[in-house]
Amino acid sequence: MENLTIILMNVQEQLKVIQQNADKIIGLEDIEKRLARGKRLRIKLGVDPTRPDLTFGHMVVFNKLRQFQDLGHECILLIGDYTATIGDPSGRSDTRPPLTPEEVKSNAKTYLEQAFLILDREKTIIRYNSEWLGKMSFGDMLMLTRSMTVARMLERDDFAKRYAENTPISIVEFLYPLIQGYDSVMLESDVELGGSDQLFNNLVGRKLQEEIGQEPQAVLTLPLIVGLDGVKKMSKSYHNYIGFNDSSKDMFGKIMSIADETMWVYYKLLLLLSDSEIAALKKEHPMQCKKDLAKRLVSRFFGDEVGKKELENFEAVFSRNEIPVDMPGFSWETLFPGKPEAKLIDILIASNQFATNSEARRALEQGSVKVNQIKETDGFSVIPKPERDIVVQAGKRKFFKIFG
RNA sequence: GGUGGGAUACUCAAGCGGCCAACGAGGGCAGACUGUAAAUCUGCUGACAAUUGUCUACACAGGUUCGAAUCCUGUUCCCACCA
After folding, report:
1. What sign does the dihedral A326-A328-A333-A336 (CA atoms) show?
2. CA–C1' gap, A319 and B42, in angstroms
3. Statement: the pTM of the whole predicted model exceeds 0.90
4. Which nucleotides of strand B lie under 7 Å from a protein CB?
5. How far is the CA of A369 from the C1' of B13 (A)?
6. Integer distance in angstroms from CA A306 to C1' B9?
7. pLDDT recorded at residue A10
8. pLDDT at residue number A239
């Protein structure tokens, strides 16, 4: 079945798919040669299970792996479980504590659950680098370090920068690219995927394979996607990300909050639209395009029904200033058992929608609170136990309902 | 191993004995304006408290003082330079 796909699609057609959205491809001719002789390519994507929450940044790379899957190639998702238990030192900002094997295992599990929202579960081969790294001796490791020089390491952009700025670089960090490269040797991969920041590391794999006499892997990097701020790359540490685990409402809202320019990038990298398709979209009203983007992406993760629902919700709340179709609700009796009335401030606090009481107070002071669509600034105004539902709103995002 | 420098709220970064819950910038939140945004302008941004009150905070532990983020002592961690 898979082989059939390969036969049906000729080399040039495949190369076109493979090259779509690629940032850099090192060894394109190697890919072409292997395809020409009918080889089923082995694709490697290494993932780091220290942070199990996937963002749309990961989606760009997963999309590419998915494309390879659809072409019928052999796709390996390599979980860096061994490396995670050592601790990833790359954090200039925060040092990540090494994880225990149990943590790694459970992280990997949640990671995979999310990854399969994009990947084809049936066609994904899962491997763990502890399979071989766990068996390596110190001597083996020393052998490996012979293939790399300090000067070459310092070619890597971020190392060079940090060295110049006197920011510390730990020796383990020098070891990481080697370890990653060794993974490629063990897997005998034909192509390694990664974000554009992984170029150097992935090239180390290519080099090691060559030294050992394997056919060197090609390296295909994908652009890093820009985050919600429209400036920095999407990353959890910048708090500018959209996560696979976000609620459908948050996902929709976050997408709507991106800048217009960012939207086209998302169309291209996340939905894989072609340039001509995007050019056509640009003729439409940007707001319409953005709503459509949000709806399509939310549908991708939550299904068409939810996508449609969130669109309606958004239009109601933001375009028509209405209340959303669904929101959290509390019954009066659970909040104020036996009480015939309550102060507005106490209602806000009891609803648990505010991180602190002060925050609730501030919302009132700033005039963002509405009760049944009517603005309220006095926290001490008394609300009687309602006969019918009342809707409380704070800002554009917080809504909740109290039923009597 | 030696010498110097540093540790302040989400981040960066002032403050160097009272006027400090702590300048300023970024971020976040809210309001105005808009096409959802972006940009712009304005306000808020430790907690608790029915206005000006209390508590907790400036690495940690003590001390000096009427009073300390600010001075002293010790501890921990970080950085640079020299070995």
Report:
1. negative
2. 24
3. no
4. 27-31, 35-38, 43-50, 78-81
5. 34
6. 40
7. 87
8. 79
| Strand B contacted by A235 CB (< 7 A) | no
Quick: pLDDT tens for A156-170.
777 777 676 666 667
Q: In the 315-344 stretch of chain A, whose C-beta falls under 7 Å of nucleic acid strand B? A: 318-319
Mean pLDDT of the residues in chain A? 88
pLDDT at position A2 = 46
- Reading across the β-sheet that carries A390-394, which strands appear in turn? A329-331, A398-403, A390-394, A369-371, A374-375
Residue A105, CB, less than 7 Å from strand B? no
Instruction: Specify whether the CB–CB gap between A296 and A271 falls below 8 A.
Output: yes
C-alpha A194: how far from its chain's center? 13
Mean pLDDT over residues A181-199, rounded? 94
Using only the alpha carbons of chain A, give its radius of gyration.
26
Which amino acid, A36?
A: A
* C-alpha–C-alpha distance, residues A217 and A203, integer Å: 8
The contacts of residue A39 (CB under 8 Å, 6+ apart) are A190
What's the pLDDT score for residue A1?
45
| Helix or strand holding residue A383 (H, E) | strand A382-384
Nearest to A44, CA basis, from A177, A148, A180, A147: A180
- High-pLDDT (> 90) share of chain A, %: 55
Q: Where does A165-217 show beta strands of DSSP type E?
A: 191-195
Residue A35 identity (one-letter amino acid):
L
Question: Which nt sits closest to A93, CA to C1'?
Answer: B11
Gap between the Cα atoms of A352 and A398, Å rounded? 11
Protein CA at A168 to nucleotide C1' at B3, angstroms: 20
Residue A208, strand partner residues: none
Residue A75: per-residue pLDDT: 97
Tokens at A94, concatenated: 């925060």
Helix and strand element counts for chain A (H, E): 20, 13
Q: What is the pLDDT of residue A91?
A: 41
CA of A393 to C1' of B56 (A): 31
